[in-house]
Design goal:
single chain; 147 residues; mainly alpha; Arc Repressor Mutant, subunit A; two-stranded antiparallel sheet; 2 strands
Length: 147
């Protein structure tokens, strides 16, 4: 359900949240740490900055840093500016079934969509960092790299 772009965004935010000091880190450094394409990640970080999740600093020593504490940023906060999940009100069949009247599955699909959004809202970056025991010194993203 989550796009590759959102996965990169979540991983980048996890990397930033794992840092002991909330100092700006360049997009290339983040991309290297999370094994994401640098140019692609740079654009994703711009979206998160525009949405107020990151603070961007230009120049020498510049980069991005979290705009809020990790316990104040949910997965929903990260995914919403990329996926626009709150606006996905159409049925899973899109326009094929829900013309002037909702299809017989629409109500259930709406419930699933709400549950999905609630799930994303219930998980914070801090919880993910703690759950996965992510440490900035030995940063290893779950599911990335060789074991």
């Amino acid at each position: 359900m989550i796009s590759q772009t959102s996965i990169h965004a979540i991983r980048a935010m996890m990397y930033l949240a794992a840092q002991k000091e909330n100092q700006p880190i360049g997009a290339a450094s983040i991309a290297s740490a999370i094994e994401a394409p640098a140019n692609y990640l740079g654009k994703t970080l711009q979206i998160l900055t525009h949405d107020g999740l990151l603070i961007s600093q230009r120049g020498l020593g510049g980069g991005v840093r979290l705009a809020r504490a990790a316990d104040q940023i949910s997965l929903y906060d990260i995914v919403e500016p990329i996926e626009h999940v709150s606006r996905q009100s159409r049925c899973f069949m899109n326009r094929l079934c829900c013309g002037p009247e909702p299809c017989r599955f629409h109500s259930r699909w709406s419930d699933i969509h709400k549950d999905y959004c609630d799930f994303l809202k219930s998980i914070t970056l801090k919880q993910i960092i703690e759950q996965n025991r992510i440490d900035a010194r030995t940063f290893k993203m779950p599911g990335i790299g060789k074991d």
